[in-house]
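Reopening closed ticket. The problem is back. First fold of the pair:
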Amino acid sequence: MNETINLLKNHKSIRKYKDQPIEPEKLKTIIECAQCASTSSFIQAYTIINVVDMDNRKNIAHLAGDQSYVEKCPLFLIFCADLNRSKNSCELNDKIMSEVNTETFILATVDASLAAQNALIAAESLGLGGVYIGGIRNNPEEICKILNIPSAVYPVFGMCIGYPDDTPDKKERLPQAVVFKTDIYHIDGDTSLIKKYDTHITDYYEKRTKGKRVDTWTHQVSGLMSKPQRPHMKDFLDKQGFILK
């Protein structure tokens, strides 16, 4: 197995970090790699904000659900879907950017996500670890105020990065046959595979917590997806100039 595949297959979310700063050259490399990600039509519709100010970090950690590692990690990045730059590019060429719609919203969100995954893979290749922080969408308006984020831009998620001070076990993913199909979408045979997968996840949590947590994947998903998820996001995106139609 080559080094790249080995790195990808051994990804773990790291939430505990050593009190060790990240070298400037490593940060530069991480951002360079983020910028090398695929991008729709070469638009590069994202901006990455490095949150250094510790008061801002503390506020963001609270707004994201009191996730202490947001405040404590050596490096905290926020990946934004950014169409403001496209608007400015239109103005430079005496054009008016078309109204931001669902397609351009998806475009910018995907661009930001691809850049983020490149950044995390680069960080892991340099001996660092990290975790995505979707909790910044709990209070996106407040996050925008803190970070001076303008219209046509929104924070997709954050990312904590640092030298790992934790070695969690790797979480087994769904069986490949559940997520990989040939020619057509179908769910034939998925139920039995997922039930078996549930037992593996139960074993994982029992081992990780020494029997304190008994859970399954379907139980987690059903608990989450049976409730509305961040219903404020539609109104927030409208205010930010993302008209989803």
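Second fold of the pair, where the issue appears:
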Amino acid sequence: MPRNGWIIVDHHHCKGCGLCVIECPKAAINLDLESLTPHGYHPAKLINGECTGCIVCAIVCPDAAITVYRSATKL
């Protein structure tokens, strides 16, 4: 059973660098071109249900703007 994950992006810290977009193994993140952060950047956002909660995006984020969550599963 696959794990379900999701992310929360802190718009006060995200600078829209796109490293999370490049490194996401499931291509589950993109930059939100329809919104801006308070500093004028396009923030990262989850775009599909493929996130597994692997935390790669949080690790590569230079501004620690991504928090990753994953649902608990029973084995």
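Update: turned out to be a display glitch only; the data is intact. The beta strands are 5-9, 29-31, 44-46, 66-70. The radius of gyration is 12 Å. Please close again.
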